[in-house]
Design goal:
The protein has 8 helices and 17 strands. The protein is an alpha/beta fold. The strands form 3 sheets. Strands 8-6-10-12-13-14-17 form a 7-stranded mixed beta sheet, with helices on both faces. Strands 1, 2, 3, 4, 9 and 11 form a 6-stranded antiparallel beta sheet that branches. The longest helix is centred in the N-terminal third of the chain and has 16 residues. The radius of gyration is 22 Å and the shape is globular.
């Protein structure tokens, strides 16, 4: 696990890595040539290539000095950050040289788990896990089927809860949560999500990949690679992280990750917990209560909002046309950490209080609604002569009636006048 997945970012800094950008591999030679032609040339940028994404990550040493030498006449607010000025210069230069063609480039943005200190999408879901009894959690017993459908979970590290033994596929040394005298509360996110997927699903296996750090954040590059690599081995890919963008457009890295996941796979993503927040309320705030949250808002992704036990839309769940389904996301019971847990405030990341858990909890948010949908899809996948693949299983779930016992249903959008 790279330390870059938990970069230290001050609340006044930009929500992306300030000295990096991403470029399509085939456009890399052009971009490197443009960097050499800047007023202060970049002779030896860092370059990290990804065959999985067909992209390269370019690091600009001393980007502040490089950008300060670029004579750009920009409108107010544009080019505020050094990396923006560098990318703008590359695009403008290529547009003038190559008949308005520009290379495919974008930022290496920060991603945020749905319940992290930096994630502003909290609203009325600004709740913390609460201790619960094991009897409140559904059965986690597996059947003897040899070839079970597989759900992939890209999330925080996994705490090795004994009730998960035999239900997830092991193999990666860094997927497990490191031992500690206490954990911050987001560290239990993957354990909670995984157990929600598996509850009352004896025919499912899970593979967990550590895409986010224990604090629930990461840079998009690492997470996008994990998504594409993990998708090769699973039927359903569950993701509970996201970012907003200033212009509400899909960020390059997440768009490419979704594109590179095969069409036979189903990607399920949390829609976010921001609908009752004030627009602009923090670094990661959306522009409106319906702003697209990525990757959930991608046309290839099943975006899942949350409803309460009575079936009513949770106030924090976005009421937007890009939300495809809803599931129970209020006071969901699942497995969690064991031992001392400290809670961080959502406003500034400081310690709020501490508590102790016995391995189970209730928690609220669209992360857990998404996990319910992933489990419902996987339960319907069948192998052999009566095969039902993930896409067909998704259509079966979409046809479930509102109010069904699985608490998962399609949410048709009602247009507004």
């Amino acid at each position: 696990m790279s330390d870059r997945q938990n970069p230290t970012v001050d609340a006044t800094e930009e929500p992306w890595n300030p000295d990096e950008f991403v470029v399509a591999l085939r456009h890399l030679p052009v971009v490197l040539d443009e960097l050499r032609n800047l007023p202060l040339p970049v002779g030896r940028p860092g370059v990290r290539e990804s065959d999985a994404l067909d992209l390269a990550l370019v690091t600009i040493p001393e980007v502040d000095k490089i950008a300060a030498q670029i004579p750009l006449d920009l409108p107010p607010g544009a080019g505020k950050y050094p990396i923006d000025r560098v990318m703008r210069t590359i695009r403008d230069s290529c547009r003038s040289k190559y008949g308005y063609w520009t290379p495919l480039i974008g930022k290496n943005r920060m991603l945020n788990g749905v319940h992290t200190v930096q994630h502003v999408g909290t609203g009325s879901a600004r709740s913390y896990p609460k201790p619960a009894s094991r009897t409140s959690v559904g059965s986690l017993v597996a059947n003897a089927t040899l070839e079970r459908p597989v759900v992939g979970v890209v999330d925080t590290p996994l705490w090795p809860h004994p009730d998960l033994d035999g239900r997830y596929r092991k193999g990666e040394s860094d997927v497990m949560l490191d031992p500690a005298t206490f954990h911050w509360h987001p560290a239990g996110h993957a354990t909670f999500v995984t157990a929600v997927v598996l509850q009352n699903s004896p025919n499912i296996d899970v593979i967990v990949r550590r895409g986010l750090g224990a604090g629930g954040t990461a840079l998009t590059w690492e997470v996008a690679e994990e998504m594409v690599k993990l998708a090769r081995s699973v039927d359903v890919l569950n993701v509970s992280f996201a970012c907003f963008t200033d212009d509400d457009k899909e960020p390059l890295l997440l768009a490419r990750a979704v594109e590179m996941v095969g069409p036979d796979k189903v990607i399920v993503a949390a829609a976010g917990n921001f609908a009752d927040c004030d627009p602009g309320d923090g670094r990661y705030a959306p522009r409106s209560p319906m702003s697209p949250m990525w990757p959930a808002a991608s046309s290839r992704v099943v975006a899942v909002g949350a409803h309460d036990a009575a079936g009513g839309r949770a106030a924090f769940s976005p009421d937007a046309p890009w939300v495809d389904m809803t599931a129970r996301g209020v006071d969901v019971a699942s497995l969690y950490l064991e031992g001392p847990v400290k809670f961080r405030t959502y406003e500034n990341g400081e310690e709020r209080e501490s508590g102790s858990f016995d391995g189970c909890a209730t928690w609220t948010g669209t992360s857990f609604a998404a996990a319910m949908v992933s489990g419902a899809i996987a339960r319907r996948i069948r192998r052999g002569s009566y095969e039902v693949d993930a896409r067909r299983a998704l259509e079966q779930v979409r046809r479930l009636p509102t109010g069904n016992s699985e608490q998962v249903w399609h949410r048709p959008f009602v247009s507004r006048p």
